[in-house]
Amino acid sequence: MGTFITTTDAISIAVISDEIRYFSLLSEEWKKLIVPVWRKYSAYSTIYGLFVNSQLMGGGILFNEMPPYATLFEKNNAVLFQKGYLYLGYVWIVENYRNKGYASTFLSLLKKEKPNQKFWLTIEEENLRYFYEQNGFKMFAESDGIKTTKEWILIYDN
């Protein structure tokens, strides 16, 4: 399971060393993206799990370098790594636990665990922008969406 690092009531986050356990929660689409390349990316990435009553219910992956399958838009903003940001990707909450505040709790506990850390992430669904802004992230860049899917980069810089 990993070592519990931050706790609030019966909800905790922990670094997960058993990546298969976390990947089993992800959508089939995301599994197809991350599982085949994980060995390469695991050297500079950390999986944080969200546990509710000791049961893994979600989490996310922090990348110290560009995540797999980065788009040109993301690569064009890779300067954020040089500015001390970590990329937060593959944020996932088990379907039965969605819309109950667990994703916000995960972000809150992650920020508490890494109080001086700056984060960036990319979304392709504009409705997620409001969620991340409610959790302290700010708009950093927006793609033109002409040749590819529209994307937004949000940052959190404590």
TrEMBL record:
Taxonomic classification: Bacteria, Pseudomonadati, Bacteroidota, Flavobacteriia, Flavobacteriales
N-acetyltransferase domain mapped to chain residues: 9-158
Name listed for the protein in its UniProt record: GNAT family N-acetyltransferase
InterPro entries: Acyl_CoA_acyltransferase (IPR016181), GNAT_dom (IPR000182)
Superkingdom assignment: Bacteria
Organism from which the protein derives: Tenacibaculum tangerinum
Alphabetized Pfam families for the sequence: Acetyltransf_1 (PF00583)
